[in-house]
Specification:
With about 190 residues, the chain is mostly helical. The protein has one domain (about 40-180): Four Helix Bundle (Hemerythrin (Met), subunit A) (Up-down Bundle), CATH 1.20.120.450. The chain is about 55% helix and about 0% strand. It has helices at about 35-55, 60-65, 75-95, 110, 115-140, 155-180. Helix 1 runs parallel beside helix 6 (about 155-180). The longest helix has 27 residues, at about 155-180.
């Protein structure tokens, strides 16, 4: 961020928000979710949406821009990393059908996040595909959140871990986006 970049938000109603409430896809005027499963599903959906919102309107160079050396973290790297995370959880839900890593090396998700439109398109497609596959795998266990799956705990624990992973990386995305163009907000 150079000295000309200013902090800004698109929101006009609440200046600490990303967008105004009537433009926020995470907002709901309806009742709060009923029950544990619905609550967990809503939190995951909203964090997934938040990550995508933090990436909207940026070109491939901006998405691939690294935070601070020696870190390889970028918004594009986060998209790729979370696609990898989604795939990992699918393997933990169904270890007999484990699938190979999307990006190879342990840091391939971040190292391969280069400023290229094709890489950005692939990352977005991979994330959507892996999220849908994770949701399908989780839905097979929705009847019992306490059911043990694989060697990694219960369905509930996996859902909470997914929420935690997105929440953590949405915090990173907040800072990365602000460094790119000064935009702030929840």
């Amino acid at each position: 961020m150079d000295e000309l970049t200013q902090r800004w938000t698109k929101a006009t109603v609440h200046p600490d928000m990303w967008v105004d409430p009537d433009e926020d896809p995470r907002s709901s005027d309806g009742p709060a979710p009923e029950g544990e499963l619905a609550t967990l599903q809503e939190y995951l959906r909203d964090y997934r949406a938040t990550l995508l919102m933090k990436c909207e309107g940026l070109d491939s160079e901006q998405l691939a821009r690294r935070s601070v050396p020696p870190s390889t973290m970028s918004l594009l790297g986060l998209l790729r990393h979370l696609a990898e995370v989604e795939r990992d959880w699918q393997s933990w839900l169904d270890p007999e059908h484990a699938r190979p890593s999307l990006y190879g090396d342990p840091d391939g998700d971040f190292d391969g996040a280069i400023a290229d439109d094709a890489v950005v398109a692939e990352a977005r497609e991979a994330l959507a595909r892996e999220q849908a596959a994770t949701d399908a795998a989780l839905s097979r266990h929705d009847h019992d959140l306490g059911a043990a799956v694989g060697a990694h705990g219960t369905v509930r624990e996996i859902r909470v871990h997914l929420i935690e992973e997105y929440a953590r990386h949405c915090g990173h995305a907040d800072l990365l986006r602000e460094c790119v163009d000064g935009r702030v907000g929840q």
